[in-house]
Design goal:
six-stranded mixed β-sheet; signal; Curlin; Curlin_rpt
Amino acid sequence: MRVLPIFLTMAITSAAAAQGSPAYTEQPSHRLRIESGGHLAETLQQGDGNFAETRQSGEGNRATILQRGIGNTATIRQFGGGLQAEANQTGGAGIAITQSGRAGTIQVQQFGPGAASAR
């Protein structure tokens, strides 16, 4: 049995914003897509033992985590507006991204067995 630890937290400023918060999941790969309060958080996992966490506050932030293989860990935290982050991992990689302010973009790709962790 596969355990899929995906944690997504978004600040929702009103009940109206909460009503427009669809979440999607697909099998056999694990995909979760959440849109809320102008934010988008998407996680796609293929393999076992992967961990993904996204936290967003502010407005209009986008975060994507793509994980393939075994034992990847990724955390994206966004505090501000217009921020974009993408983590693409294979082979037991670890990453933590924190963004604050306005209109920043980061993309990190890690490939190979036990790719070096980045912070």
